[in-house]
Structure formats: C-alpha cells, structure tokens
Amino acid sequence: MMHFEFHVEGGNFTKAGAASSQLKKILKQLNVDPKIIKRIVVALYEAEVNVVAHAFQGDIFIDIDTEKIGIKLVDQGPGIADIELAMQKGYSTASSSVREMGFGAGMGLPNIKNNSDELKITSEVNVGTTVEFVTYLNQ
Amino acid sequence: MKVTEIVEKLNLKVFSGKEGLNNEVTNGYTSDLLSDVMGHADAGNAWITLQTHKNVMAIASLKDLSAVILVKGFEPEEDMAAQSNEEGIPVLGTSEEAFTISGKLYGMLQK
C-alpha cells in the first residue's frame, strides 16, 4: 500500500498538471500497465485542472495497492450546485479567460468518467467539492 | 516518420525542444481544446494548434506526443518554449492555417 499527497493552487495554471506528471512517473516505476497509466493520467489531469480553474485550493490523496488506484481530490471553492448538469458534455462554468486558453469546454468531468472505473462527486456550494475515482489494475 | 523529416518537408520553424527532433510521429491531431486532446490524442501524435501557453506542453508530455505544430505564425510563450526544451518535445511553427498544414501532414503520413 502506497500513499501520496499533492497540493493544488487555485488559479495557478503554470503548475496545472504537476501532480499528474508526478503520478505518471511513479506508476511507470511501479511497472503498471501503460494502458492503465494513460487512463489514470487523463482522469487526474482533468480533475487537477478543475481545481485550478474553479477552486481556491485543493489537495490530492492517492492510494495505490495491488488491486487498484484510488484518487481523491478535496477542494475549497465555490462547489457545484447541480452535479448532474456539470457532468453533461459541453456544460461549463469556466471564465472566458480560462476558455481562451482552450480549457472550459465542458469535457473535463466526462473525460474523468470515461477514464476511471468508479467516480463519485460530492459538493457543497460555497464550501467545496470532493471528486473520488478508482481505477482497477487487473481489468 | 521522424519529426525532422516533417520539419524539412513542410518547411517548419523549430522554436524549441530540439532534443526531440528524432521523435517518431505516428499520426496527427488537430484541436485547440485542451481536454479534447487530453481525451482523444494518441501517443506519438503531432499536435496542431494555435494555443501557445505552457499547459500545451503539460498535455503533450502527459500524452507522450511527438511534437507540437503552431499554426498561422503563432510563436510559443517563453515558459512554453522552456517546458518544451525540458521535456524534449519540439515546438514547431508554420505560417499556414490548421486546415492546410493538417492536410499536408495527413498526406505525408498516409504514404
């Protein structure tokens, strides 16, 4: 069982993807199947960018065992009022400056869903959002 | 096909990431939406885009892309070029539009 934690600064796009990059290196060293690494990296990157784009700050908790990789992002931020709506492709509340960078196309949460085996989102408006997803290693 | 061959044949400018000029280009992907590339580009793809900021390189690295081609005379921002050098993923440039350069690259890679 291995555990890793990363901190994410809200609004700082120059560091977006740093945790995903670290996890990619760790999973390579652990000889995880490259196909599974690809899925996890996509899911974590999107979740990381969501914290950067929407929240004040957040923390990432990663647990790796022989069967699965569990990732949990807990942020302090505006929260999501309607999670079902947020899950729809193309729906986004990103600012225009974030959209100009090519983010905020409403593809992030769908990408996380497509690239994980289990996804759970809980949120409280004006408090924050918790995104948890699991990827099984032997599938 | 190697990145250098594409640079030569398509007359591209090399802005940064020269260490990766021998990367193998498997195919191309044209998009300016970062999550689209994140979700759908494949390893070895050359990414054709007009986005010039550092996050492009984060995605290129996470997805193991072979190169980034900036269209319409766009140039990489300083931190994008720096990241490209660090990752060894070349940032290339053309004065042509995405449609034209994508078509040319597609034609080259089909042969």
Describe the structure.
The complex is a heterodimer of chains A (139) and B (111). Chain A has helices at 18-29, 34-54, 83-87, 96-100, 108-114; strands at residues 2-9, 57-64, 68-76, 118-124, 128-136. Chain A is of the alpha+beta class and 139 residues long. Chain A has a five-stranded antiparallel beta sheet with strand order 1-2-3-5-4, covered by helices on one side. Chain A is globular, with a radius of gyration of 14 Å. The two termini of chain A are 19 Å apart. Chain B is built from five helices and five strands; from the N terminus they run αββαβαβαβα. Chain B is globular and about 35 Å long. In chain B, strands 1-5-4-3-2 form a five-stranded mixed beta sheet, with helices on both faces. In chain B, 47% of the residues are buried. By secondary structure, chain B is an alpha/beta fold. The longest helix of chain B is centred in the last third of the chain and has 13 residues, at 98-110. The interface between A and B is medium-sized, with 23 and 19 residues.
Short overview:
The complex is a heterodimer of chains A (139) and B (111). Chain A has 139 residues and is of the alpha+beta class.
Summed up, the domain count of chain B is 1
The second-level CATH architecture of chain A is 2-Layer Sandwich
CATH homologous superfamily name of chain B?
Answer: HprK N-terminal domain-like
Tell me the CATH architecture of chain B.
3-Layer(aba) Sandwich
Overall average pLDDT of chain B = 97
Compute the separation of the termini of chain B in Å: 10 Å
Count up the helices of chain B: 5
Q: What is the helical fraction of chain A, as a range of percent?
A: 25-40%
Order of helices and strands of chain A: EHHEEHHHEE
List keywords for this structure.
heterodimer; A: 139 residues; alpha+beta; Heat Shock Protein 90; five-stranded antiparallel sheet; 36% helix; globular; B: 111 residues; alpha/beta; Udp-n-acetylmuramoylalanyl-d-glutamate--2,6- Diaminopimelate Ligase, Chain: A, domain 1; five-stranded mixed sheet; 41% helix
